[in-house]
Amino acid sequence: MCNYIIPKEVFSIMKSQFNEQCITPGQMNLIFNMRIFWRRLVIWSRLYISSRYLGIGTAEVSFERLYIENLDFGDALRIFFNRSIGNRFSELINQFSFGLRDLITDQLEEDYDGIRQDIDRLFQNANQTAEFLASINPYFDETEFKNLFTTYLQDTIQMANLLATQDYRMNIEYFDRLMNHADIIGDAFAQGLYEYIVSAANTTDALPSDEGQRCLTYEQMNMIFGIRMFWFDIVIWTRALMLSKYRNVGDYEEIYAHLQNIVDEHISNLKQFFDETPELNQLQLEIKTYIDLIDSLATAQIAGNAAEIDEIVRQMYQNAETAASLSATINPYLNEDALKATWLNNTQNTIDLSTTFLTEDYARNFYIFSSLIDQAEISSDSFWQSVLNYIFRDQPEVG
User: Fold this and answer.
1) 306-330 vs 336-359: helix axis angle to the nearest 10?
2) Is residue 13 situated within a structural domain?
3) SS3 label, residue 212
4) Which residues 6+ apart lie within 8 Å of 340 measured at CB?
5) pTM to 2 decimals?
6) Number of domains in the chain
């Protein structure tokens, strides 16, 4: 590990902090990217765990996707450090994935000695990863990351245990906990990387002033992140709703209520930035109608009612166009035509996702879900930028 150590003396001795009253767009983007990286790892880890315990035929494919996500994370660190550091980080994260795979295998085979060894190796990996991060960047705190990774590991193991015992209600709670914890890890990563960049870039004892910067408070940033993550959450929990309908896996009422809460929180966040208009309340109703249509589609497909399916599909496309128009009315910085195309594409993929549950074509199901997640990230990039444009509409650019 010593090959990766960067002496502290090459950095400024002053440690900067994010000014919670002035988060700049560049800092916000760094935070968002780190949060998304960790959220994606949680999503694909859960999908892999679910495929193993539920036996829906996507275990190998989902593990491959998890492996690729780990490599992508390492590639991101290469931007800040170098190739060997990025590769080593990917290796450590992949050791976690391999350890998780071994743990599930031993649980399914009821190999209790193997389970204990797997858990020991996983905690050892968490400590090694924290030690490695501290060795490459003096602004990564080893103790902090050991605590963060330990909690992440404990909650991941508990989420797996709850699936194994079919305690789906608590499984949902732990998944939510992991998604929130992913944001905390992402913030720690962003903080350390920001300090690394600023310290290496400045030779004076003072950091650049935030005075005159176009910026937001930390609270506003979190609201924007909530807006940005809206489609991620809808996609994730829509699939969970379908799984509960088609395979009786999960607490249907809990999942349905969770989707409703996602919509309510989304509209609440939007109201913090946009004028409260009838269109916002109408958008809330349209998105909730969309969820109900998805639910009705699954019911009709299970019943084999072709006429009802056709009518629901027609309503889903109409709903998508209406919701896109309302969004563009609320935020004039959104392109309505592009937004309609995105909504319609999402609707088509969601219909196909439901169909693959019906036909038990889980390989295609996984592919469609993966496409929906990727599309959610692409859409969120342009959407959060449009929110920033709206917020800064009366503020001059800072040169």
Assistant:
1) 150
2) no
3) coil
4) 320, 321, 324, 325
5) 0.84
6) 2
